[in-house]
Specification:
Shape: globular
GO molecular function, one term: 5-amino-6-(5-phosphoribosylamino)uracil reductase activity
Structural class: alpha/beta
Pfam family, one: RibD_C
Strand content: 15-25%
CATH class: Alpha Beta
Largest sheet: 8 strands, mixed
CATH architecture: 3-Layer(aba) Sandwich
Organism: Paracoccus denitrificans (strain Pd 1222)
Number of domains: 1
InterPro entries: DHFR-like_dom_sf, RibDG_C, Riboflavin_Biosynth_HTPR
Protein name: Bifunctional deaminase-reductase domain protein
Number of strands: 8
Low-confidence stretches: none
Distance between the termini: 51 Å
Length: 203
């Protein structure tokens, strides 16, 4: 059984859009692209290196795939670029006719479930908001690693949109960077618990 691990940079108000740079995803008039970079520190570099040190495959939505495919194959002198370029890339898309980045394969939600039940390395989901929401709705994500930045962006594409099934999570690990970024690891923990009937009601 393979584990699906979602790695998401997110603001305090839940925005995950364009953390890396101004041109990454300006959709909807988003003007805060690159918001994560000024808060980066060496501790976060270490966590990232540790995360990428083990074998992994990538699972990406169309938009994130296009961003990654346009950048990382041309930056294999970077340790992250080398790891991403060497990994198998599974792409959840109906719109792309060609997947030009070497090692890329098209997959749908049913295909992801088959991948998960097979043998192989961990599967990392980076960004990919629409694909991640589909995986969450299908109960396929084993771990959410949220890098929560102390920023209120006020608008943009959000991690969890209305309509997802109610799910409890358990906190498996937490770390804090020197710049106030909180890196929390959450794992699904079944349905949301509700209070016993009558609890908290006035007499």
């Amino acid at each position: 059984m393979r584990r699906i691990i979602a790695i998401i940079y997110v603001s305090l108000d839940g925005v995950m859009q364009a953390p890396g740079g101004p041109e990454e995803d300006p959709g909807g008039g988003f003007v805060h692209g690159g918001w994560a970079m000024p808060r980066w520190d060496e501790m976060m570099n270490g966590l990232l290196a540790e995360l990428l040190d083990r074998p992994f495959a990538l699972l990406l939505g169309r938009k994130t795939y296009e961003i990654f495919a346009g950048y990382w194959p041309h930056h294999t002198d970077n340790p992250i670029g080398r790891k991403f370029d060497a990994a198998v890339k599974y792409v959840m898309t109906r719109r792309l006719d060609r997947l030009d980045w070497a090692g890329s394969e098209r997959v749908d939600a049913a295909g992801v479930a088959r991948l998960k039940s097979g043998e192989g390395p961990q599967i990392h989901v980076w960004g990919s908001g629409n694909a991640l929401r589909a995986l969450t709705a299908a109960g396929l994500v084993d771990e959410y690693r949220l890098w929560i930045f102390p920023l209120i962006l006020g608008g943009g594409k959000r991690l969890f949109e209305p309509g997802l099934p109610a799910t409890a999570l358990t906190l498996a690990d937490t770390k804090v960077s020197t710049t106030g970024v909180v890196i929390n690891t959450y794992r699904p923990a079944g349905p949301v618990a509700l209070p016993a009937e009558g609890l908290g009601k006035a007499e």
